[in-house]
Design a protein that fits this description.
Oligomer: single chain
Strand content: over 45%
Distance between the termini: 40 Å
Radius of gyration: 14 Å
Shape: globular
Structural class: mainly beta
Helix content: under 10%
Number of helices: 0
Order of helices and strands: EEEEEEEEEEE
């Protein structure tokens, strides 16, 4: 069965760091671009970052550029989001997703993990 299992969320102070993980199974991970989105209560889902299957090109939303880093380990079927210099406005539920190469839609979603940035 297809699964995207997320971990690494939690509470962190402003200026702190957190690393999210998303472990994939049930599909050919290396054939999918991986993405991160986030959503706060009452707001629409917001794009955060993506990384392609090959040649591993990355892209970031302006709000997180320079602070967040997306990476992937194809051998481990895992995508990561390293979040540094966190701000209160980064507070949200973070979701990883998988998009098959050539697809215009997202194929799979993780369950989400809460990130709270507060002093």
């Amino acid at each position: 069965q297809v699964q995207l299992v997320q971990s690494g969320g939690g509470l962190v102070q402003p200026g702190g760091s957190l690393r999210l993980s998303c472990a994939a199974s049930g599909f050919t991970f290396s054939s999918y671009a991986m993405e991160w989105y986030r959503q706060s209560p009452g707001k629409e889902r917001e794009y955060v970052a993506f990384i392609t299957a090959a040649p591993f090109i990355t892209n970031y939303a302006a709000a997180v550029k320079g602070r967040f880093t997306i990476s992937r380990d194809n051998a481990a079927n895992t995508v990561y989001l390293q979040m540094n210099n966190l701000k209160s406005e980064d507070t949200a539920v973070y979701y990883c997703s998988a998009r098959r190469i050539g697809s215009t839609v997202i194929d799979y979603w993780g369950q989400g993990t809460q990130v709270t940035v507060s002093s």
